[in-house]
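Lecture 7, part B: from sequences to assemblies.

Below are the input chains for today's worked example.
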Amino acid sequence: MARDPQGALVALNRFGFGARGGAASDFSSAASDPRGFVKAELGRPNAALLDAPGLQSSPALAQAVFDYQHDIKRQREAAAKTAQAMAAIGDDLTRKMQNDLPKELAAESGLEMKPGVATSTTSPDVMQPTASPKQPPKPLNIIQKTFRAEALARIQRATMAESGFVERLVTFWSNHLCTSASKGELARIWSGAFEREAIRPYVLGNFGEMLRAVEQHPAMLFFLDNQRSFGPQSRAGQNRKRGLNENLAREIMELHTLGVNGGYTQDDVAALARIITGWTFAGRDGKLAPPGTFTFFANAHEPGPQKLLGKVYEDTGLAQGEAALADIARHPATAKFIATKFVRHFVADDPPPALVAKLESTFKKTGGDLRAMTLALVDADEAWHAPMTKIRMPYEYLVAAGRMMGRIPEDPQRYLGGLNVLGQPLWAPAGPNGFADTNAAWAAPEGIKLRLDIASQIASRIADNVDPRALLDVVAGEAASTETRQTVERAESRQQAFALLLMSPEFQRR
Amino acid sequence: MSDIPMDCCESHTARGLTRRALLLGSATFAAWAYLPKFARAKDGRDPRFVTIILRGALDGLATVAPVGDPNYAGLHGSIALSLDGAHAATPLDSFFALHPSMTEFARMYKDKKAAVVHAVATPYRERSHFDGQDVLESGFGGPGRVQSGWLNRALEAMPRGERVMSGLAVGPTTPLVLRGAAPTVGWAPPYIPQAADDTAMRLVNLYNHRDPALAAALSQGLQIDRIAARDDSMKPKRGMNGAAAMRLAAKGAARLMAADDGPRIAALAFDGWDTHANEGGSVGRLAQLLSGLDGALAEFESGLGERWRDTVIVVVTEFGRTARINGTEGTDHGTGTVALLAGGAVNGGRVISDWPGLKVANLYEGRDLKPTADLRGVIKGVLRDHLGLGERVLAETVFPDSGAVKAMQGLVV
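Predicted structure of the full complex, as structure tokens:
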């Protein structure tokens, strides 16, 4: 097969996470067979599963949070007793309020990313953004430790993967069906587990199954408040004088499936909310089930049939909601919404209608087979010939930089800090619609300026044995433009050349 | 070693230039500068306009509570504000009371430098945040129509001048309200050391040849950083919470806008107002957020210095929340809410409202505060009386097809 450098750039950047440095010859492999290079990972059994040592299940993590919260409470009570201070009440209140606020600014503040090629003469502390006076670092609590371990496992996988296409699929679906780590302690400790348990097993499986796994996952139920939604006529609702919370039901239809113009009404939102009352997870007392597991709390379930999108669902308990979800997952509006978002992510902000129609039809024909839809994308010529107008999102950008350096990440803080600066804090979008997927969001003036600052900081830590010209070949081979090559070659230092390479259109666009 | 020029650079245009030279050379930027019509008018006014978008749908009934409405306390239940108790709401008049965490706004109100418009909404009547924000920011009657915002189109409609920079977007991305044909500049609190000028210029040069869109974005990003001189107090601190981050963003924006050649118009967006559960009443999560907003307004007041007297800040949100609390001590997506105005040029000390009442029969769809004022009319009133935009351009360009929505009178001194 003839060598196809432009196809290689598309294979590596549009579909994957960029070429790896070091011993890998990704660019050559991609150039000799771009489609084959992209598809290779899809054929691997369980390609999307992530099972790193030490990562725990959601119930085990919930138990850890409950234990941690119990410890904190005991310590506080002990402290309050010794001090015999009235003020403790006020303190507790303040702390409670702070706990409800987004924490990512506070939690991850290491900001530079480690290129990790060789040691630098610069002390790492010089790079700390706030240059605060040295204090002994506080030991990490179980939530922070878990978040970092989950982040590291994900970043390592993305950095080591061959093309990274499957990992790109994971980031797409995880963003489409997102939770946010800033919702609270449970949400934060569950961020990684949610993705491992409810997203990864299905990215090459069936959409309806993914949807059920997501909407029944404790992380989602917690994020969108469904564990606190009670059927007004249910026994628990009557006893506790509690009622509906429409949040999850609304976002299921608006964001996860039908899309905002998908033909549902406020009455449908309320109906779905009633249908999924009782979908909850067991708390620390473990009365209903082991703490942190999904459970159906029949006492909170609104009794009676419900009419949703013109169809009546009899009250069959848990099965009522599962039937409704299955229908919504197969709805034509869902096929259209999913196909549009998928093409927008991989190809263009304004998705080519013919390509969307192709994927939409595959989705409908196969009942939501995501492997089939993904293959339809890779097989479509439009996906290969569309100009590379999209800019990498911050996560893709930092992972691509790490891959180019050819080193396995060891410190997730550098990535997490970089993501915070660039406006894409890991697993913590501002709302349930996830991070935006358009150039307007990521190629804005301040964003590009910050990217340059980050690139310079990464570059300032590379060693003198790195040859940026060789790295340009790793990244873009003969597809690199003359101007980019000259800009890299004529830079006044290796570090500057490296920063310019990281900012070049060949590295930014996909 | 660094003194010796590398011989590969002989043809390099950027070498030896400073970033400043680069910026002065970018003539396109100056051509896109704007001067509000009233600048240098006989009263010497040099107007500043800020819009703050609260994303997530602010509970207007918890911010400015209709304590005089007999149905309020029952509907809002455990999170209703009251005039009694430890955290009593501040009475604004005989009917409305302000959330107790907004002490700065209360002071401005007393000084007649702040006002409230209640039972207000955009034309959007559904309950999707994202569509609601689209209508709020695009200025169109429905969602998804355009990729430009009313504030950007207002900029375009203003006379162009040489000294004044274009609109300022605070944060790593530009909100839709300020996106469009008129170029804008972005600024965010600096979190990391900046790249060297020389590296930046080489990159602009590369982008100019290979990627015009990135060239434009980077040039504007660089230009605004020059004006926001580095300042330790601008740096986010470890452990900073959302309220402190709001203050910091406002402080930086105020510094930029106070300069004679700084931007006159800015947009900020604060997240986190979607209070489905545990909203809190006089204390709690919403209280914390409102105190952040209150602090941001105070930062504008102190940072703008003399220019505060020429300033109008309009705080808006995509829609309100249900009048009745839900099953989880929160509120769901609703319709009518408040708009807040603050600034030395505000004709304040008033709650402006054609109050619809909170009887169930008076609620919108039996659940939300019924809107009796169109938010576009509020903004039109400010744009007309503060920035000098004409009725026609407001009705046709800034808020298309809004001829029937009259600009609210008398919002500006």
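Note for the exam: The longest strand of chain B covers residues 114-121. Keep this in mind when comparing with the next example.
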